[in-house]
Amino acid sequence: MALAPLTASRGLRVTLAGAAASALLLTGCAAQDSSATPAEDTTAASEPSLEFAGPNGEVPGALAELELTDEELAEVADGDYTAAFVWHTSGDFVAAVEEGARAEFAELGIEVVASTQANFDAGTQANNVQTVMALEPDIVVAIAVDPTSAAQSFQPILDAGAELVIMTTPPEGYSAGEEFVSIVTEDLAKAGQANAEILGDALGGEGEVGYLSYNANFWFTNQRDESFKDWLAYSYPDIEIVEEQGFADETATQAAAAAMIAKNPNLTGIYVSWATAAQGVLAAIRAAGRDDIQVVTNDLDTTVAAAMMTGSNVAGMVGNGSLDIGAGLARAGAYGLLGKEAPALVASDPTKVTADNLVEGWEADYGVAPPSSVTGG
Question: What is the CATH number of domain 188-319+353-375?
Answer without folding.
Answer: 3.40.50.2300
